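In response to the reviewer comment on reproducibility (Comment 2.3), we provide here a single inverse folding case reported in full, input and output, so that an independent group could reproduce the run without further information from us. The structure tokens appear first.
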């Protein structure tokens, strides 16, 4: 993700330089006011480019300090709103998909682990929902996968995928315990992790 950010920033600089060169050539061909092209467009372009890079640089700093995923969209929607509505009174949670760490089944309840954006600390709530309900909620998020009958995980928080014989587990940021991966889900997790590492989402 950091590499993807750097590539986007460098690409933006080269694109800006190309556009300025193109605009200058158009100005020479059609004899348009030099003030408009040399002053206004130059300042707007440079300032706009700097603001864009500063905004994304702040995301990079947050990632490096808090291990919070970068909010950079690379062709696939990486962040959507998730609404969890439990069956008991006052069970309601709305978060961005990039802040969800994992969901664990607990019988007729689910344990939702997410990052509280007010302090970037892990927070846990338990709602009366089942995994089918959760599947419908996270269905459109490309970074959240069901790795086991009892778990959904956010690929952005996975540190490593490890095997012990035929048993597979993932180590996840902010979660102390190993999270199991079903044999039938190993290929899906590996494939999506590979796409994430290559900046495909």
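Designed residues, in position order:
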């Amino acid at each position: 993700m950091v590499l993807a950010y750097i590539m986007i920033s460098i690409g933006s600089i080269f694109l800006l330089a190309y556009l300025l060169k193109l605009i200058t050539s158009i100005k020479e061909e059609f004899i348009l006011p030099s003030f408009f092209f040399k002053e206004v467009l130059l300042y707007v372009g440079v300032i706009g480019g700097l603001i864009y890079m500063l905004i994304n640089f702040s995301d990079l700093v947050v990632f490096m300090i808090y291990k919070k995923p970068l909010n950079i969209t690379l062709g696939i929607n990486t962040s959507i709103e998730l609404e969890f509505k439990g069956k008991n009174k006052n069970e309601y949670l709305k978060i961005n998909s990039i802040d969800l760490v994992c969901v664990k089944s607990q019988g007729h309840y689910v344990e939702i682990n997410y990052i509280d954006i007010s302090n970037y600390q892990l927070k846990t709530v338990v709602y009366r929902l089942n995994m089918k309900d959760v599947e419908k909620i996270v269905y459109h998020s490309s970074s959240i996968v069901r790795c086991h009958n009892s778990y959904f995980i956010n690929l952005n928080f996975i540190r490593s995928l490890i095997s012990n014989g035929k048993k597979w587990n993932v180590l996840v940021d902010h979660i102390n315990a190993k999270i199991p991966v079903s044999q039938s889900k190993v290929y899906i997790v590996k494939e999506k992790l590979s796409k994430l590492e290559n900046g495909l989402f």
